[in-house]
Design goal:
The chain is an alpha/beta fold. It has nine helices and seven strands; from the N terminus they run βαβαβαβαβααβαβαα. It has one domain: P-loop containing nucleotide triphosphate hydrolases (Rossmann fold, 3-Layer(aba) Sandwich), CATH 3.40.50. Strands 3-2-4-1-5-6-7 form a seven-stranded parallel β-sheet, with helices on both faces. Strand 6, helix 7 and strand 7 form a beta-alpha-beta unit.
């Protein structure tokens, strides 16, 4: 059983959308998938699951994680995630996805530390760069850039000798148009990813199919009996399935075969 954490220190990068699409695509590939939702105030993924059940669509299981104690620290949350992973493995799950929130909090740090694969979502915006990497720029530099968490997680993985640990930087919510700003962000991300040993992937383009799926429960990878596939969904289906295939390959998962889980 493998753990995939989806993270970013900036809202609006499409973390939850990517999580919902990826979880659905993995489920359709025959991998039993559970999702832990850390956004407990609005619960978008729980509502997505309910919408899919209402539409009679196969759905990944969405769960909350409650850690006891007044102020749980990083170690408390790590133990909570590991307990959840062990329980999921006993029930035959293949993959545990953790959708984080956009804040430097103990649960977010812990979710990154327990992961076998981290997927960081980023858009073609210079503001996203200020949240990720150290810069010499003016006031938009983040107090704690995401690069600090990357360094922390890398050291932790090395300490535990996690040789198969992986990290994807997913360029998400891309515009259909090629822009000078977008290309500049991409070039800087390429340099940063090369220095940080992170794979830069093509993520999800800004498409209508993704905007409506959280309400309807229908994702671009779904086939609805008796209904033709909309042309706008075809490209979204291709990129969604490509992302799922990259995750499966990185985690060395085979649909229908259970991966062992051991506490790290």
């Amino acid at each position: 059983m493998k753990i995939v954490t989806i993270g970013s220190f900036k809202g609006g990068t499409g973390k939850t959308t990517l999580c919902a699409v990826l979880a659905t695509a993995l489920t359709q590939r025959g991998l039993k998938t559970r999702v832990i939702e850390l956004e407990t105030s609005t619960k978008p993924l729980a509502r997505f699951e309910a919408a899919r059940e209402f539409a009679d669509l196969n759905s990944p299981n969405v769960a909350d994680l409650h850690v006891s104690g007044g102020h749980p620290d990083v170690q408390d949350w790590q133990m909570g995630f590991r307990n959840q992973a062990e329980e999921a493995a006993r029930k035959g799950y293949d993959v545990l996805l953790i959708d984080t929130v956009s804040v430097w909090k103990p649960e977010v740090i812990a979710a990154h530390l327990v992961a076998d694969l981290v997927i960081t979502t980023v858009t073609e915006s210079p503001v996203d760069l200020y949240q990720i990497m150290p810069t010499n720029g003016p006031s938009m530099q983040a107090t704690r850039p995401y690069s600090q968490l990357i360094d922390l997680v890398r050291r932790h993985a090395q300490k535990l000798n996690k040789t198969d640990f992986g990290w994807f930087m997913c360029l998400n919510r891309k515009s259909h148009l090629i822009t000078r700003v977008g290309e500049s962000v991409r070039e800087q991300l390429l340099d940063f990813c090369e220095e940080s040993n992170i794979d830069l992937l093509e993520g999800l383009v800004d498409r209508v199919g993704y905007r409506i799926m959280m309400e309807t429960g229908v994702t671009p990878v779904d086939d609805i009996a008796g209904e033709p596939i909309q042309r706008s969904f075809l490209a979204a289906r291709t990129e969604s399935r490509r992302l799922a295939a990259q995750v499966i390959r990185q985690l060395n998962l085979q649909p229908g075969q259970r991966a062992n889980y051991a506490i790290a």
